[in-house]
Amino acid sequence: MLRCPLQLVRLRLPVRQLSDLTTKFTGLGSFSNLNYDQLQSSLRTDSSQCEQFWKLIGEQQLNWMQPFHTVSDCDLKSAKIAWYLGGKLNASANCIDRHLATRADQTALIWEQDEPGNQVYITYKQLHAEVCRIASLLLQSGLQAGDTAVLYMPTGPPVVYCMLACARIGVAHSVVFAGFSAEALAARIQDVGAKVVITTDQAIRGGKTVELKRTVDAAVKSCPMVERVFVSTRTGASVPMGSIDVPLEKNAAACSADCAAEPMDSEQPLFVLYTSGSTGKPKGLVHSTAGYLVYTSLTHQHVFDYRPGQDIFGCVADVGWITGHSYVVYGPLANGGTTLLFESTPAYPDVGRYWETAERLGLTHIYLSPTYDLSRLRVLGCVGEPLNHEAWEWYHRWVGGGHRDIADTWWQTETGGVCIAPRPSAEGAPILPAMPMRPFYGLEPVLMDPATGAEVTESPAEGHLCMRRPWPGMARSIWGDHKRFAETYYSQFPGLYFTGDGASRDAQGFLHITGRVDDVINVTGHRLGTAEIEDALDSHPAVSETAVIGYPHKLKGEAVYAFVILKDGVSIDRLGDLRRELKRRVRDRIAAYAVPEKLLFTDGLPKTRSGKIMRRILKRIAAEDYDSIGDISTLADPSVVEALKQHHDLYQ
Ligand code: PRX
């Protein structure tokens, strides 16, 4: 296990020191000469300045087929968000065509295959041809602007071609992470109403093959709206092909390598991406074409200080998540950059994979989920202080050689792009360990007191993290359920966007994220709602009631702990089988990563007299933090707590 740091000592990543560089805007009128603090204060105090700022940014960041006439039309009280109205543009043209004059032969994509040493380079010219061919094929199949397509594919060039091909013809894509089960995939296909699904014969990850086409076959059985399944070739294995299945590459090769990019309205949905919330049903967050692209390209440039033509951006996220959308595909390509498509896992063939890849490919940036850092950190035995702080020190020392900048970035599927990050900083200002610190240009985070609903204005302080001002990259709605969108994000603190996270602010005003304040947990960087897992477990005929919580886990960041009450009459002899069946049920309904690490059968749960489960108590029991369980006298049956502690101890 000590291999990892030993390899790192030898590493010489060509990562620049960000603090040497300026992040000032050029050519942005009166904003050009302002430093970060001056710009933020001018945007915060004067709405017309804010409007002017986003106008100039919108004009500067993108190529427009028709200029916008209105910068924004937002009212957070009623969850109305719209940017760059009247404008027409195409996201695919902004990510490809506009770079062709100067970057046709520059590498756009580096595909780092599962087996190290098999990297494939794709230029902007090649990207253009591939995207056009697939876009032509999709048009031929009857897809048209306004339709949706589901993509169930591994990270690699084909999924990027398909995303951009959809964008080219005005079809909203919904990429479903290729680790989801057939049932979870079917639920998303049905919810988004996809006529077309695009998948891959098999994926390869960590040396193992994953049967994607077979999973799609199982999913589409319950999706009568699906007319066509395109199948991309990764392994070339023979997979069953039915009447609606069409080989992707073979058919695309016969199509035109020139397909016009359709002018789309600014607010046309670019994609729908499902994420977990605190209820059982995943939410399909809708992102716009113009605002999203303005914001991801701007944040990619400024948060990471990205220089197209010189830098190789290595975001190792899977394209199935928002990080992959924003910082593998749209941000880097809109900026004319070179971006990494990482097919493998952080531990294949060994835990030095990221660093070996970075060295071999000459990456200038690495962007990854901190869960993996935490896991290494714990494995290395560097525990003892608050986790985040340790992770930062570890990363700074081993990866950054003690002198490279580390950007802890805070954001969400809902926010479209990074909202809080050390960059943009006042030039040369220090970056403090383990906190994202500063809001991005034009954003105004506020801390709210959940008890009073009032803003917490003093510092240092803690509270629920909200955003006061809208920004172009924020999600516009939940697909098919705007009411739920308004209720989830805009009702708790009227007039503000509520993130679902808690945060603290230090005396200097810098922000630190304390974690979710709702029933959302984060397992190996994957966001999960505890209610989704409860729904899956509750569907088993032997189960009466369940309560699922997240607890700190040394390898996964958080892991799933399920407390299960069985129905009367279930034989104790069946417990072993039931444990397996219940885990299987979660795997089948959601995904392998959602399977409870611990599953405890119990006779009771700690409930208030009104029947509400006290999850706080379950979390303390799971963390064996018995001393801070606190007052249990308000429980309907306080003896439950002692029984749970004993069961938990026996189960270990
Ligand atoms: O709890 C926060 C955590 O990840 C959640 C968002 O998850 P998702 O939508 O899957 O997007 C992840 C990638 C952007 C947030 O509500 N989170 C995100 N960034 C940080 C974080 N927690 C602590 N520090 C961060 N930098």
UniProtKB/TrEMBL annotation:
Signal peptide: none annotated. It comes from the Eukaryota. GO terms for biological process: acetyl-CoA biosynthetic process from acetate. GO terms for cellular component: mitochondrion. It is an enzyme of class 6 (ligase). GO terms for molecular function: acetate-CoA ligase activity; AMP binding; ATP binding. It catalyses: acetate + ATP + CoA = acetyl-CoA + AMP + diphosphate. Its EC number is 6.2.1.1. Keywords: ATP-binding, Ligase, Nucleotide-binding. Pfam families: ACAS_N, AMP-binding, AMP-binding_C. Residues 97-477 form the AMP-dependent synthetase/ligase domain. Residues 532-612 form the AMP-binding enzyme C-terminal domain. Residues 49-95 form the Acetyl-coenzyme A synthetase N-terminal domain. Belongs to the ATP-dependent AMP-binding enzyme family. PANTHER family: ACETYL-COENZYME A SYNTHETASE, ACETYL-COENZYME A SYNTHETASE 1. This is Acetyl-coenzyme A synthetase. It comes from Macrostomum lignano.
